[in-house]
Amino acid sequence: MTGRPVRGVRGNLVYLRPREPGDAGTIHGWFEDTRVATLMGDLPRSLVWRQQRDGANMGDEGTDVFFFVICRLDDDVPVGRLDLFFIDRAHGSAAFGLAIGDPALWGKGYGTDAVNAIVDFAFGQLRLERLWLDTNAHNARAQAVYTKCGFVREGVFRRAFYQDGRWSDDVRMAMIREEWLALDRPRSWDLAAAEVEARGAS
Asked: CA 94 → CA 17, 90, 129, 134, distances in Å?
């Protein structure tokens, strides 16, 4: 453990690392599962398509978008992906979306941890004022996670998404800086500092 890097963009169980070209195969494997593809509204895509699209988008990394892989802290195994996008520097806002790739890992707390990590990154590193997301109105699990993390339901976009022969509504949820500041939990950098201290004491 002592020889591994201390991860800063993190929760208690997972950390976020920048996505690399070699991650395309892992992500493609996740989206081959219908449960994941349906949840994310993803159409059938080839590995070549995903590699080419990811390669083309990497040029925008760190400006208009951040691409992350969600990894477990204890063994560095990738468990999902998270994108931060629509970054509006003038008005201090951005959107994000995430997926835990293996349905067997749903409900383990990894999604909640990843949300807390991206919230701290958005407000504590990028100095944003508002972070938002859209989720399918039928996705009660995701809405419960976001509510637990401090997001507020702002409204509904009616008939915003078409999948599997039916229209669905999208729910818009958001958090503003004051709400983040009011959260009673350690920040990502606090968790990293605690790890550094623990390593120094061992």
From this structure: 18, 11, 9, 12
Residue 2 has pLDDT above 60, yes or no: no
Instruction: Count structural domains, the chain.
Output: 1
Residue with tokens 């159409």: 43
On the question of pLDDT at 163 being above 90, the answer is no
Residue 67 domain boundaries: 14-128
CA-based nearest residue to 30, from 82, 77, 118, 99: 99
Decide if 169 is inside a domain.
no
**What average pLDDT does range 135-141 have in this prediction?**
91
Contact 113, 14 (CB under 8 A): yes
Residue 55 one-letter amino acid: G
